[in-house]
């Protein structure tokens, strides 16, 4: 497992968010969840950066992963 910080932006009722979190948990990848429904400032930040949907997975040394993308998430495991 990599020691880089992983941040996952989610929202309530988002199935792809749940699938992404499940994948990360199953592969023991630690992450910080930020729910944009509970944190409007984060929602504004994402909009300002041009993101229009969640989940978004950020890691400091990688490109953001938008949506549930198992192949891209696998790279976080390595």
UniProtKB/TrEMBL annotation:
Keyword Lipid biosynthesis: no
Taxonomy, superkingdom: Bacteria
Coiled-coil regions listed: none
UniProt domain Glutaredoxin: residue ranges: 6-58
PROSITE patterns membership: GLUTAREDOXIN_2 (PS51354)
Keywords assigned: Disulfide bond, Electron transport, Redox-active center, Transport
InterPro entries per UniProt: GlrX_NrdH (IPR011909), Glutaredoxin (IPR002109), Grx-like_ET (IPR051548), Thioredoxin-like_sf (IPR036249)
GO BP term (any one): cell redox homeostasis
SUPFAM superfamilies (UniProt xref): Thioredoxin-like (SSF52833)
Example GO molecular function: electron transfer activity
One family name in Pfam for this protein: Glutaredoxin
PANTHER family for the chain: GLUTAREDOXIN (PTHR34386), GLUTAREDOXIN-LIKE PROTEIN NRDH (PTHR34386:SF1)
Function noted in UniProt: Electron transport system for the ribonucleotide reductase system NrdEF.
Similarity comment: family membership: Belongs to the glutaredoxin family.
Record NCBIfam families: GlrX_NrdH
Full protein name: Glutaredoxin-like protein NrdH
Organism: Lapidilactobacillus dextrinicus
Taxonomic classification: Bacteria, Bacillati, Bacillota, Bacilli, Lactobacillales
